[in-house]
Amino acid sequence: MVRTALFLAAAALSIAAWSAPGDMEIRSTATGGDIVVRTSARFAGAVVSIVYRGMEYIDVADHGRAMQSASSFDRLGECYNPTEAGNRDDGDRLRTTSRLLDARFGVGWLKTENDMAFWLLPGTDYGATCGTTPKVRRAVNSAERAGHLLRKRVAFVEGIPNLIEYEASFTVPNAHASATFEVVTGYMPVRFSRHWLFDMFKGELQDATRQGEQARPVILATPGGAHAMGVWSPGLPQNGGGYGRFEFPSVVKWNCVYREWDLRKGNTYRYLCYVAVGTLEEVKSALRQAAARIGSK
Fold it and tell me: According to the model, what pLDDT value does residue 294 have?
């Protein structure tokens, strides 16, 4: 009887550890199989996996990589950079400095609330200019967290099964002259090496020849176009930018970015981005369907 009780207790502990708050999964049945989106408590509820037709779309080597949200303020870049999944020192640890406050999900949707950790620990020497502020070279934040609240909702779009709606709301605890809200970024394996700019109205692709932000939605694909991921937002472009793509030695990424000025203490800023997965042609079609249904700027 004691042995049975111990076994049951151990099993319950194992299940609790595996399904901690923030460990969630949602699915959408699309052509060729289910699209499976997973989040992780280890990364404070950030999206750590999207699998479709046997392909993993997200690269999660550390707490800087995932499909996640972040913000930065006053042109300080990573020196004042609340980040959903955790801070740089969390690295590949099994914990995160970000604090998951709430996590829930239903059929085809999930929600989280997160007190984001600053990317750098207080006082960290950045070793370079912080953002575009030449005189600052160290982390500006004085704590690991400061009440930069992120509330996000991730949901499959009815009628477009390979399209994901990503809604993010950022509540800022203090006033700032400016902010960059990385509403969502996707870190992807380097095999997604073909990068495109997408003319939504003509349905045409153009080679993305430079890194950084631009006015057109970006799509990252495998060389043959069998697997791709793209992003579009009804409020972009903003001042000629908003869609970014970047290449690093071991990972590639895209992002959906908004900027604000004269931010007031306690205000909340809400944005929508749409992420499509599938073949290159399926991604193009899903993004165009989203624009036709929702309208575009």
Answer: 83
Q: Which amino acid, one-letter code, is at 55? A: M
| Count of C-beta atoms within a 10 Å radius of residue 283 | 28
Domain membership of residue 96 (yes or no) is yes
Full domain range(s) for residue 38: 21-294
Please say whether the beta carbons of 261 and 269 come within 8 A. no
Residue type (1 letter), 160 = I
Q: How many domains does the chain have?
A: 1
CA dihedral 257, 185, 52, 88 (to 10 degrees): -170
**176 phi-psi bin (left φ>0, alpha ψ -120 to 50, beta other):** beta
Q: Dig out the tokens for 80 from the structure.
A: 């004042």
Q: How far is CA 258 from CA 36, 86, 233, in A?
A: 27, 21, 10
Consecutive 10-residue averages of pLDDT for the chain (297 residues):
38 43 96 97 98 98 96 98 98 94 97 98 97 97 98 97 98 98 98 97 95 97 98 97 97 98 98 98 98 75
Dihedral sign computed on CA atoms, order 199, 286, 156, 45: negative
* Reduced 3-state DSSP string for 141-207: CCCCEEEEEEEEEEEEECCEEEEEEEEEEEECCCCEEEEEEEEEEEEECCCCCEEEEEECCCCEEEE
163 pairs with which residues across the strands?
276
**CATH number of the domain bearing residue 250:** 2.70.98
- Alpha-carbon torsion, ordered 131, 40, 107, 258, to 10 deg: 0
From CA 114, how far away is CA 112, in angstroms rounded? 6
Q: What is the pLDDT of residue 181?
A: 98
